[in-house]
Amino acid sequence: MDAYTIPKAVIILSGKRKSGKDYISDLILHRLGTNNCAILRLSGPLKKQYAKDHNLDYERLLDASEYKEQFRQDMICWGEEKRNQDPGFFCRLATENESSQKEIWIISDARRQSDVEYFKENYRKAALTVRVHSNIDVREQRGFVFTQGIDDAESECGLDVGVDWDIIIQNNGDQQELDDGINKLLELVSS
Ligand SMILES: Nc1ncnc2c1ncn2[C@@H]1O[C@H](COP(=O)(O)OP(=O)(O)OP(=O)(O)O)[C@@H](O)[C@H]1O
């Protein structure tokens, strides 16, 4: 087993659409360095595993093609089924690739209670939960448009309540406030 298969820190990011999860994941990665740290996406392995199980072209499922649209609904159902059988299924897949050899993981897209529980249960001492918060008007300036069926679904609202976040990062366009949040997080990572 590789020395870093057990990470030193697992930074679990959650936030609404266009709150800045990807943006902040990149900032954290930049601060910690790619030698030590990697971004792991929970949404990535779903398509990969679906393609594998159904003998489909993974690359074509990733782009904005008709091909993907043909399978979208079935892929969503398949994902739900897998998660119902095994809530940690996609979390486990996301942490089984080369990136997970790094000693610090940034999970950039936790969406459900079961995602947070998975990492807290499996990496109890290393897990740090982070909520990225942006006001609705700021999110709208970044292109957010409320979409029924997405923004009122579990995948968007599952973590609105019920988690005692270790850190809440405010990402409302004030650089100092954002830096303060990230600095506080990095202090926890190194403590
Ligand atoms: N502090 C910031 N300064 C400048 N641009 C920002 C900042 N935060 C976010 N953005 C920009 O806002 C847009 C949305 O951010 P991002 O993609 O990180 O959000 P997200 O939470 O990952 O969204 P989604 O859930 O839709 O993937 C991006 O273009 C990003 O570059």
Please outline what is shown here.
The protein has about 190 residues and is of the alpha/beta class. Helix content is about 45%, strand content about 15%. The chain starts with 8 loop residues before the first strand and ends with a helix.
Describe the protein's architecture and organization.
- With 191 residues, the chain is of the alpha/beta class.
- Helices cover 47% and strands 14% of the residues.
- The chain has helices at 21-32, 44-53, 58-62, 66-85, 89-94, 113-122, 136-141, 154-157, 175-190; strands spanning 9-15, 37-40, 104-107, 127-133, 167-170.
- A five-stranded parallel β-sheet has the order 2-3-1-4-5.
- Bound molecules: adenosine-5'-triphosphate (ATP).
Q: Sheet bearing the most strands, described?
A: 5 strands, parallel
Q: How do the SSEs run, as a string of H and E? A: EHEHHHHEHEHHEH
Q: Using only CA atoms, what is the Rg?
A: 17 Å
| Portion of residues within helices | 40-55%
Based on secondary structure, the structural category is: alpha/beta
- Identify every distinct bound molecule in the structure, by name, code or SMILES: adenosine-5'-triphosphate
Strand content: 5-15%
Whole-number average pLDDT?
92
EC number: 2.7.4.2
Binding site for ATP: 16-22, 142, 171
Pathway: Isoprenoid biosynthesis; isopentenyl diphosphate biosynthesis via mevalonate pathway; isopentenyl diphosphate from (R)-mevalonate: step 2/3
GO cellular component, one term: cytosol
